[in-house]
């Protein structure tokens, strides 16, 4: 893995250190997460964030353990960091950090107070909602270490205030149980019990959300560090509370061994690939039902089938996890209804609201069988996959149907946004893309061919599938090329002056990256043309991947900033999406274009935002500051996949 470390000039500069985030997942959808500075900048940050029935229904528990060191002189030095609603940052322990390292995926801080050096490591017990925080004296001493436990118990998407109920804290052996939900254990527990008012989260303020909350100071742990090597450790774990986890140092060692094994299983060709393999591991989880699933992004997303299927090859087939992938594909196949794959249950109910998620599922199954030779799975899922084709031909939800005139797939209903460009502002789709979107039809053609091959592998007749594939391919080649020199983004779209279903239709030639799939997929409908690809790259490509809209478009939004409406309004109107680097590189390679320098910017990005991982989005304008989730599944998966192809 790449060497990720920061010295005092990064650690001690709040703007630099607080904008770099670390993540330690528990394998269930929960996590520990924070910043290099130790400052919590999001409502989602904490040392114990517990998953619920779905990964998205998380609860924040232990928020922080603030260290304070009493030196032999009697001086007391606070090493934590909090920002307050007043604008003050106090304490400012980051100013004493001499180094931060990410070692085998685990964060490690070193504070220097003169001759005294103290180290902190954080790890989660794999497969359990349990965190260990180990403090070790490296040099100097003896010193006394106190750890103040700031706690809450609330939905990760909200905040808790002092004008509500006081958290219930019950004293138990070597610690306490908070709200009956999680337990704290460590040496020298002393109960306290008071509100810390007005803790500020600067990233929530930047996102236009309520930025402040109140935390409950439940108590403090304490211990003596007499000589180098001595430790003071704290564990926190959620139910079952009576099943005590291993000692903290053993948890750290277990997590480190597991992470090394994850990387070794992926057989990375270089250090970057090793880092991406471990980053990918964060998204593959076992839910409360013990089923394999994929978290789309941390810290606020749960499972979304579109994201899962786009990520499938990178997360599972490029990392030696085909058996888990097989299990996941079978489980997702069981959600098919009217030829559509369930998209998400994050909202509290199962939703069927994409036109492309199901087509990405066809692609994932085809890639699984092609890469692994697992024809048994292909045979097993074949009847379900045929229902997808039949339903799309006959017509299914939201006007999704095959147009018999040209064999292409059309879609759209009032108020819907069914493609991956699905943002809404006040319930109104920003990019409804009603009609025949280019990537949807590339996926449809790709899916028909992939299913035809699976059918033939099963010894069955695929004539009708190949006929439909031929018709759709011919129509695609005839209709999608635009006079502008690239491909139309949507065919047969309602003209702007007409409502959905109005008489006038037009072909939208906005320069967007969706067309890349027409050249990049295994059964792509077009052969790449270098001149066309260069036009697309000249208009869209940035160091972190393609923009979602060319800068010269009237609707272009160059900064993905502001409140929810501002951010959603610009989400697909120029914002950069790193996952699209995968389709771009595939298309360029097929067009015999050099992509040797395509990964330079995004590999450097591994040190910039979600450290060791890849962000969800970035600004469309330089310097392309990262936005959205710091840790995003399809961004990691697609980079891992296309880099692997070049090695």
UniProtKB/TrEMBL annotation:
Indicate the segments forming the Glycogen debranching enzyme bacterial and archaeal type N-terminal domain, all copies: 20-227
Q: Name one Pfam family in it.
A: GDE_N
Any one GO molecular function term: amylo-alpha-1,6-glucosidase activity
Identify the domain of life. Answer: Bacteria
Recorded hits in Gene3D superfamilies, A to Z, give: 1.50.10.10
GO terms in the biological process aspect are:
glycogen catabolic process
Protein name (record): Putative glycogen debranching enzyme
Species the sequence originates in: Micromonospora violae
């Amino acid at each position: 893995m790449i060497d990720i470390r920061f010295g005092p000039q990064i650690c001690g500069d709040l703007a630099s250190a607080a904008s770099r985030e670390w993540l330690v997942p528990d394998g269930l959808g929960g996590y520990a997460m924070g910043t290099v500075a130790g400052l919590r900048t999001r409502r989602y940050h904490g040392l114990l964030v517990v998953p619920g029935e779905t990964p998205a229904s998380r609860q924040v528990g232990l928020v922080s353990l603030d260290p304070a060191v009493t030196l032999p002189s009697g001086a007391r030095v606070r090493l934590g960091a909090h920002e307050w609603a007043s604008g003050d940052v106090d304490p400012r322990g980051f100013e004493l950090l001499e180094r931060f390292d990410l070692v085998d995926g685990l964060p490690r801080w070193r504070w220097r107070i003169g001759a005294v050096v103290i180290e902190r490591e954080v790890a989660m017990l794999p497969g359990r909602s349990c965190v260990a925080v180990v403090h070790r004296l490296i040099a100097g001493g003896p010193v006394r270490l106190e750890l103040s436990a700031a706690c809450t118990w609330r939905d990760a998407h909200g905040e808790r205030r002092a004008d509500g109920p006081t958290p219930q804290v019950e004293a138990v052996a070597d610690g306490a149980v908070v709200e009956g939900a999680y337990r704290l254990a460590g040496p020298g527990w002393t109960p306290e019990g008071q509100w810390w008012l007005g803790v500020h989260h600067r990233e929530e303020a930047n996102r236009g959300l309520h930025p402040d909350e109140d935390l409950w100071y439940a108590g403090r742990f304490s211990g003596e560090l007499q000589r180098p090597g001595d430790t003071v450790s704290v564990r926190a774990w959620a139910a079952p509370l009576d099943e005590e986890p291993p000692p903290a140092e053993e948890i750290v060692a277990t997590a480190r061994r597991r992470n090394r094994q994850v990387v070794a299983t992926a057989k990375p060709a270089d250090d970057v690939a090793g880092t991406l393999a471990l980053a990918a591991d964060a998204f593959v989880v076992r839910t409360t039902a013990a089923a394999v699933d994929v978290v789309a992004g941390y810290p606020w997303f749960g499972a979304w089938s579109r994201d899962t299927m786009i990520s499938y090859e990178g997360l599972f087939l490029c990392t030696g996890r085909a058996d888990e992938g097989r299990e996941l594909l079978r489980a997702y196949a069981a959600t098919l209804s009217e030829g559509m794959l369930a998209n998400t249950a994050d909202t509290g109910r199962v939703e069927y609201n994409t036109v492309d998620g199901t087509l990405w599922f066809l692609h994932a199954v085809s890639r699984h069988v092609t890469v692994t030779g697992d024809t048994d799975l292909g045979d097993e899922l074949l009847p379900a996959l045929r229902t997808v084709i039949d339903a799309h031909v006959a017509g299914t939800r939201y006007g999704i149907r095959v147009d018999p005139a040209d064999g292409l797939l059309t879609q759209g209903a009032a108020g819907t946004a069914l493609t991956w460009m699905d943002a809404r502002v006040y319930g109104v789709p920003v990019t409804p893309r009603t009609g025949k979107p280019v990537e949807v039809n590339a996926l449809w053609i790709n899916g028909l061919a992939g299913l035809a091959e699976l059918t033939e592998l099963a010894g069955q007749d695929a004539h009708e599938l190949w006929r439909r594939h031929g018709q759709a391919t011919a129509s695609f080649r005839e209709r999608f090329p635009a006079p502008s020199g690239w491909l139309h983004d949507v065919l047969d779209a309602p003209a702007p002056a007409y409502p959905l279903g109005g008489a006038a239709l037009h072909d939208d030639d906005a320069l967007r990256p969706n067309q890349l799939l027409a050249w990049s997929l295994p059964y792509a409908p077009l052969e790449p043309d270098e001149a066309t690809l260069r036009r697309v790259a000249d208009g869209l490509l940035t160091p972190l991947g393609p923009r979602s809209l060319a800068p010269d478009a009237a609707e272009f939004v160059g900064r993905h900033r502001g409140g929810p409406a501002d951010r959603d309004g610009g989400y697909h109107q120029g914002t950069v999406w790193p996952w699209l680097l995968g389709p771009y590189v595939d298309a360029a390679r097929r067009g015999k274009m050099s992509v040797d320098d395509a990964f330079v910017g995004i590999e450097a990005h591994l040190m910039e935002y979600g450290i060791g991982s890849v962000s969800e989005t970035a600004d469309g304008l330089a310097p392309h500051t990262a936005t959205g989730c710091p840790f995003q599944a399809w961004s990691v998966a697609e980079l891992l996949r296309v880099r692997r192809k070049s090695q």
